[in-house]
Amino acid sequence: MIFIKLRNIALFLCLLLPFNKLVAADITLSSQSEKVHQVIYKHPAQKDSSQMNQTLFETPDKAFYMDVVSVYCFADVCKIDTVRIYWNDIGKYQKFELKPGINLEKAKGEVFTAPDYKKLQLILKDENSPFKNISIDNIISTQQTEYGDIDAFSGATAINLDESVSIKGAVLTVYTLWHWANGGLVSMIRKITADAANSMDLIDYLANKDVEHKLFAIEQLTKRKAYDALLLESVKSQYGVESQKLKRSVISYLENAPEEVYINAIMDLFDSDNSKQRIDCLQSLIVSDTHLTVDLYQKLYRQLCHQKTYHEVDLLFTLLEKNTTFSDEQIDPLFIFLTNSNILISRRAYWFLENKNINKRQEKILKEFLKKNSEYL
Questions:
Q1: Cβ burial, residue 177 (10 Å; 0-12/13-18/19+)
Q2: What is the DSSP letter of 146?
């Protein structure tokens, strides 16, 4: 672990230099067919509250890039370079580039080494870097200091960071570039792509793209409340992909559908040989605000005798407990669960049945079960 006191360097690091003056001369289009997007963004390293106009470029193959400052600082005190940051079409950071002959620098003019650049790429690709939750005030103090006092960190408090998550002597540069790569510009890029995408584009994402693009497509379809038959089936089919995030996204999409669409779709997914899939559907039904009809209760009731795992039996009983009306014909078959060799299942059935209106024969069965299994109840 690196432990470095955050000392006083306000004069060294001035965060008010206008962005446009730094990089306007450096911006060159890679292709005449690129699109130019003017966006307004406030970098968290800016100490003032103003938002700045930024120029974001979109390439013909739907990638994005922007030329940004490597650090916010007095131009005559520390070296400021222009760095080109690249994202894919859904705002995922890809890489950075420097013009030939330009090198990033650490404290006291030390030039980045090849391992430093490699580490920087790894840090910028980490969307959950510690920099995500570190304020610029934790890095920079509000008191004056000499340039020679600069080290890996500076500020009013002490920060502990593992060596793998930053570069010694260049923490402010890494912080600045990480927030360019992973900050508010990401959502702006996603919005640009989403606004330009129609339903068929999103279906193509679902059919042919990676998990991140699939998640993006489902997110957009949910926002659009798009539930026509083709879209619904395209999203449901994604549950089979081996990604828990994607499975949760599919369920969330269905939960936001109109009630009838949701019920039919969730019951279609429930009709599966996959226990985890059935459990996900039952958990969704439990937490949803959907009105459970008599017909749905009947379908759930009929599923009880086919379930073999405790988790599924427990969830089904939980759902059935919402139904306050059970006939004798429905209650009686449930007593078979009391004979299950799995005490968790038989005990769950007991708790369900003890609050129901039962006849004397059934009451006797419950008492016998209680006497036999009192240590587990």
A1: buried
A2: -
Q: Are residues 225 and 369 in the same domain?
A: no
**Do 207 and 308 fall into the same domain?**
no
Residue 215 buriedness (CB in 10 A; 0-12 / 13-18 / 19+):
buried
Chain-centroid distance of CA 38 in Å reads 27
Q: What whole-number distance in Å separates Cα of residue 363 and Cα of residue 93?
A: 65
Question: Starting at the edge strand that comes first in sequence, how are the strands of the sheet with 82-87 ordered?
Answer: 35-41, 52-58, 64-69, 82-87, 93-97
Domain, as residue range, for 132: 2-187
Element (H, E) at 52: strand 52-58
pLDDT values of the chain reduced to their tens digit, one per residue, 377 residues: 333 333 333 323 333 333 333 333 344 555 568 999 999 988 888 777 667 889 999 999 999 999 999 887 644 456 789 999 999 999 999 999 999 999 999 877 889 999 999 999 999 999 999 998 888 777 764 323 333 444 433 333 345 677 778 898 888 899 999 999 999 999 999 999 999 999 999 999 999 999 999 999 999 999 999 999 999 999 999 999 999 999 999 999 999 999 999 999 999 999 999 999 999 999 999 999 888 888 888 889 999 888 889 999 999 999 998 877 778 888 999 999 999 999 999 999 999 999 888 999 999 999 999 999 999 98
Cα–Cα distance, 346 to 352 (Å, whole number): 10
**52 within 8 A of 25, measured Cβ to Cβ:** no
The answer to whether position 285 is within a domain reads: no
Cα 83 to Cα 131: distance, rounded to the nearest angstrom: 19
**Structure pTM?**
0.81
